[in-house]
Amino acid sequence: MIVNFDKYIDNRHAKLSKFDGLRSLYGTSQDTCISMWVADMDFNPPQAVLTALQKEVSHGVFGYYGSNKSFISSIKFWMKSRHDWDISEEWCSVVHGVNSGIGMGLRAFSEPGDEILLFSPVYYSFFNTIKNNGRVVKEIPLKISDGHYEIDFHKLDKSLSGKEKIIIFCSPHNPGGKVWSTETLVSLAEFSMKNNIIIFMDEIHHDLTYPDKPHVTFLKAAPEAEEISLIFTAATKTFNIAGCHTGTTIIPNPKLRSIYDREHAAFGKTPNRFGMIMTEAAYREGAEWLDQLMHYLENNRNIFINSMRSLSKVKVFDLESTYLAWVDFSKLNITEEELKTMLVKEAGVAPSFGSGFGKTSGKFARFNIACRTEILNLAIDRLTKTFL
Ligand SMILES: Cc1ncc(COP(=O)(O)O)c(C=O)c1O
Predict the structure, then answer these.
(1) What is the 98 CA–ligand 1 centroid distance (Å)?
(2) Quick count: other Cβ atoms within 10 Å of Cβ 244?
(3) Cα(245) to centroid of ligand 1, in Å?
(4) How many angstroms separate the CA atoms of 335 and 354, rounded?
(5) Which of 2, 175, 180, 302 is most enclosed, with most CB atoms within 10 A?
(6) Residue-level pLDDT at 176
(7) pLDDT tens per residue across span 237-254
(8) Rounded to an integer, what distance in angstroms lies between the CA atom of residue 388 and that of residue 226?
């Protein structure tokens, strides 16, 4: 079935944080401003997901979800069929989203006051989850080499205090969409093993890659890191079902698994029936939809990147994966506040501001380009007029 991603979907009254937040966070509204900050898409999920939900609604039985066997087997199926990654079903557990899994993991494997390593810029919720759990963010800025982010392992080695317990790493990278290479992932695994640091690998964006740059699955690149790793993933970004708040934690090491499980039990292990049903339908029947989505997004990506490249004082990073484009406005010689005003009030576009992603990215912004191409072009027109 051909999916029409250009179809207009009226989402204005769907209680979306991307619109409601425009008022509370940006002081504007969807009437005047194009919302490009939240990481969800303007498209309906695959028909299989809607059909599965409609079936649920039609029988009207919403009791506690029973055996999760078929859900877990759909995860195994997806990892094998999409990523050629063999996992064991017993490694997997269902969580209420990746952020929630990471929060529980922090509590399971560190103590208040312990340092948690982040390579910035990186997804802003990591900072909040660490701080709200009383742990300390240790931020190591990525270096820019040849227009790409890289880990500066030399600096990393020199900065160690001995209090680091966990690394939270985002692969592919949000923001910036970098697909990390096998070499980088192997070096990260070696560094962590040498220093006795657990890795939380957030692979939630792993399906959102373009044909020229496939995702490198961490535990395929560095199988020895199974001993020290927790992998977090979900179908929510891939299939645009973030509101169903369901994700998966994959932990090969039985010792780590049992420690994590105890923490999980302390919060009450009650899976979300709707999230599981939607996720399973997406994994079992969503592959073709996803291929078409990536084709559509590739075109959006090319349009956005080429347009931003035509602006002499704006630098856009290559978008190797994801629909979250990372743009550097620092050449403009204006303050962060002035940049925000220009984006929101003058251009009428609301991206995520860079400061949330780390200490070196205050003059950056992250743009979600997963909208109809018509809307993207409108946003580009506005940006071009403002920043030419
Ligand atoms: C890297 C990354 N991890 C986690 C999340 C949130 O995941 P969840 O909604 O499952 O908590 C996001 C959402 O944008 C993300 O980009």
Answers:
(1) 6
(2) 24
(3) 10
(4) 12
(5) 175
(6) 87
(7) 999 999 999 999 999 999
(8) 49
Residue from 254, 251, 117, 241 nearest 191 by CA: 117
- Beta carbons of 45 and 282 less than 8 angstroms apart: yes
For ligand 1, whether the C-beta of 40 sits within 6 Å is: no
State residue 198 phi and psi, 5-degree precision. -80, 145
Please say if the pLDDT value at position 146 is more than 90.
no
Assigned token pair, 67: 């055996």
- Asked if 282 contacts 49 with a C-beta cutoff of 8 angstroms, the reply is yes
Three-state SS for 313? Answer: coil
Show the domains of the chain with their CATH numbers.
17-46+287-387 (3.90.1150.10), 61-285 (3.40.640.10)
Which SS3 state, helix, strand or coil, does residue 222 take? coil
Gap from CA of 313 to ligand 1 centroid (Å): 31
Residue from 102, 104, 125 to probe ligand 1 pocket by mutation (most atoms less than 8 Å from CB) = 125
pLDDT band for position 270 (cuts 50, 70, 90): confident
Cβ–Cβ < 8 Å for 45, 240: yes
Residue 203 Cα, ligand 1 centroid: separation in angstroms? 9
The label of the residue with tokens 């939900």 reads 53
What are the structure tokens assigned to 122, written together? 């990186």
Q: Is 118 in the pocket of ligand 1 (CB under 6 A)?
A: no
